[in-house]
Amino acid sequence: DNGMDVEELVNSSSVVELSAPSRSEAIRELVDLINWQEHSISPDGVMNAIEEREATAQTIIASDLAMPHRK
């Protein structure tokens, strides 16, 4: 035990509560939070890239908790 708790590791602006009933719908909710088109990026392209990454290394820690990761 290193003495740290979750609150010290994650600031509240990094926590997003979702209502999606499935992993795929939760990812879509997260993708939809950002205005990708403002940066000339296709939201569907982002979704496809995330799905490809999730196929190799999922972010799921528990049934109701996931931590995003960088490639």
Helix and strand arrangement:
Layout (H helix, E strand, L loop, with lengths): L5 H4 L13 H10 L10 H14 L3 E3 L2 E2 L5
Antiparallel strand pairs: 1-2
Helix pairs in contact: 2-3
Strand order of the largest sheet: 1-2
One letter per element, helices H and strands E, the order comes to HHHEE
Number of strands: 2
Shape: globular
- How many DSSP H or I helices? 3
Report low-confidence residues grouped into runs of 5 or more. none
Strand content: 5-15%
Using only C-alpha atoms, the radius of gyration works out to 14 Å
Please identify the structural class as seen in this structure.
mainly alpha
Tell me, rounded to a whole number, the average pLDDT. Answer: 75
N- and C-termini, Cα separation: 27 Å
Q: Biggest β-sheet, characterized?
A: 2 strands, antiparallel
Fraction in helix: 25-40%
Task: Give a summary of the structure in a few sentences.
This protein is mainly α. The chain has three helices and two strands; from the N terminus they run αααββ.
3D architecture notes:
The protein is mainly α and 71 residues long. Helices cover 39% and strands 7% of the residues. The chain contains three helices and two strands; from the N terminus they run αααββ. The protein has a two-stranded antiparallel ribbon. Strand 1 and strand 2 form a beta hairpin. The mean pLDDT is 75.
Features:
71 residues; mainly alpha; two-stranded antiparallel sheet; globular
